[in-house]
Amino acid sequence: MLSDCLKGSSVAAIVVAMTVILAVVAGTAGVVVVGIEGRFKDRAPRAADRMARAAQHLNGDGTPPKAFLRLLP
């Protein structure tokens, strides 16, 4: 009986974990599509500019923010 209860909670944990993973993948794909390729720039130019900046950071090409640089010695 106890093992049946534990199986149900582990399945729920797996479902939640997979949902989070899929959300991260969808967010990253959105950054790539909007930021790097420049799609939908005419509909939301400010969002596209922010996504392009985030895409540069994901590629390692972006400059670090000034607030972050102040934290470093």
Could you name the key traits of this structure?
transmembrane, transmembrane helix, 0% strand, 73 residues, flat, membrane
List the helices and strands and how they pair.
Elements: H1 2-36, H2 45-59, H3 66-71
Helix pairs in contact: 1-2
- The domain count comes to 1
The portion of residues assigned to helices is: over 70%
Straight-line N-to-C gap: 58 Å
Principal-axes geometry comes out as: flat
Beta-strand content: under 5%
Describe the largest sheet. none
* Uncertain regions spanning at least 5 consecutive residues: none
Assign the structural class, choosing from mainly alpha, mainly beta, alpha/beta, alpha+beta, or little secondary structure: mainly alpha
- Helix count, per DSSP? 3
Gyration radius over CA: 19 Å
Count of β-strands: 0
Order of helices and strands: HHH
Mean pLDDT rating: 80
Oligomer: single chain
Describe this structure as you would to a colleague.
The protein has 73 residues and is an all-alpha fold. The protein has one domain. Helix content is 77%, strand content 0%. It contains 3 helices and no strands. The protein has helices spanning 2-36, 45-59, 66-71. Helix 1 packs across helix 2. It is flat. The mean pLDDT is 80.
Short summary of the structure?
By secondary structure, the protein is mostly helical. 77% of the residues lie in helices and 0% in strands. It has one domain.
